[in-house]
Structures are given as C-alpha cells and as structure tokens.
Predict the 3D structure of the following.
Amino acid sequence: MQAYMWWWIFAAVLVGVELTSGTFYLLVYGVAAAVAGVAAWLGAGIVVQLLTAAAIAVVGTLALRHWKCSTAHPESTVEDMDIGQTVHIDSWQDGHGQVKYRGALWDAEAESAGVDSTRPLIIRAVKGNTLVLGN
C-alpha cells in the first residue's frame, strides 16, 4: 500500500475518534495527516511528509489554543447575571437579613456599614448562597 493511503487512513481514524471527544484537537491532527497524505501523493519524501504533518499540527494546535482562550470567560458565571439586580427586603437588621429575589428568600449581607436599607438594594456580589448588597 502506498504511503499516502496510510496517511489518509490515519487521518480518517483521528477524525473518527474526534467525533466522540469533541475537543477539536484530533481534528487538527487528522487534517495534518491528510495534508501529509497529499504531500506523499505528490511524491514528497518521508521527511517532507513528517515535517508537513508536524508543522500543520503545531500551527493548528496553537491556533486552537488561542481560539479557546479568547472565547473562554472563566470569570463569567451564572452568578454574574445576578449582579446589578434589585432585591426586595423581607427582613433586615444590622447589615444582615433576608431578601426576596427570583421568587425565593435569600440570605443577604451589606457590602459595607454605609448601606442604607431604606433605599433600593442592589446585588454587588454572590458568596455561596449569600447575596452581598449595596446601594
């Protein structure tokens, strides 16, 4: 069997396994193997084939890492959606209490000693199941 056929079989296996993982890394390596197969089909030597596969794999891996880092926002969580929302006081005393938010009672604490509970309270942070409130 010709070398290009081995490369293309290897590429098909990598892409097939990628379909079960969903990470895209094996897809990059599958593309690298397929391009190395094209190089072999065009008559390139084994060294050129390996260098072609390695170069595409490295460039593809770096591009994929850059894309994943630019689209991932670890600081963005479900709790961030709550920040800035107004709550209704159920009971409040000495900077602690319970507030109604999203149809449930939540424990709450004041952001600082200067928080005025007579004015609307806004969620400033979330600590576990306690809302940190401020004006």
About this structure: The chain has two domains: 3-71, 78-134. Strands lie at 86-93, 96-101, 104-110, 121-127, 130-134.
